Design the sequence.
């Protein structure tokens, strides 16, 4: 837990990430997400990591939502493209 010096509120260091309120270790979550990133199926990942397939799906969905939000934030601040010269 961290505490803001200005407003004195406490918050979790992992809030807003895939690891927030995770019941699996960071290494296990990372390993599952690496399998998904490499294109390994949900069922095969669940067998390799010895977790339920719904767990793999949940973490994959959370990582996708986090990546989408980050992408939208970065695209919002990207410089405008100038028109190409002819």
Sequence:
């Amino acid at each position: 837990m961290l505490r803001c010096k200005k407003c004195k509120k406490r918050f979790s260091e992992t809030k807003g990430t895939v690891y927030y309120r995770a019941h699996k270790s960071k290494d296990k979550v990372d390993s599952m997400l690496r399998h998904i990133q490499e294109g390994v199926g949900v069922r095969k990942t669940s067998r390799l990591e010895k977790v339920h397939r719904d767990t793999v799906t949940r973490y994959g969905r959370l990582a996708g939502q986090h990546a989408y939000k980050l992408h939208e934030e970065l695209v919002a601040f990207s410089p405008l493209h100038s028109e190409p010269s002819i």
In short: Strands lie at 2-3, 10-11.
